[in-house]
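Write out this protein's structure.
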Amino acid sequence: MLDVRIKKALAHFLVDVHLKVENEIVVLVGPSGAGKTTILNVIAGLDQPDEGLVTLNEQVYFQGKGQSLPPQKRNVGYLFQDYALFPHMTVEKNISYGVKNKIALSRSDQLISVLGIGHLIKKYPHQISGGEKQRVALARALATEPSVLLLDEPLSALDRETRLECQDELLRLHEMWKIPFIIVTHDMDEAEKLGDRILFLEQGVIKESRT
């Protein structure tokens, strides 16, 4: 279980949230600048709260006012909005980046098969479509066998048909992996399709929770 209780002062308001996430899909919805990405970055260790507690399966990621585990020691998968694939690496090398052992490498081969991207492994990011990049980024995020997956508007740049296909892919992968997923989106249809819970964020505070 992921437990997040944090306070962080931003330019115009205070992010003050407490959420617990089991092996479910939680969707964060709210206007731009409401603090959604800040919450993901704090969980991943890319940003640090002013105070609070972040734990995942009883491992402490952040505690108090500065005791923070480095990002590379957190078992977190992060799918960024722009996918953040390495342009100079092939699809295969992008996916295997950060994989530390042969067992995990065989899992990444399984992910390549499950996501139907085996025909892309020798290509570079500029040679593949948006939907294909999304699947590659998802495979890379899962290849390290994370205990939680964070997705920051991962489908926003896709056309409607590809977006619907990738939503189905996310639901299928969650059913297989059974780990907490936290997804940021502005699309209410997407939130309702994907989310076991939808949290509405406004100026750093969860105003409403819907199941």
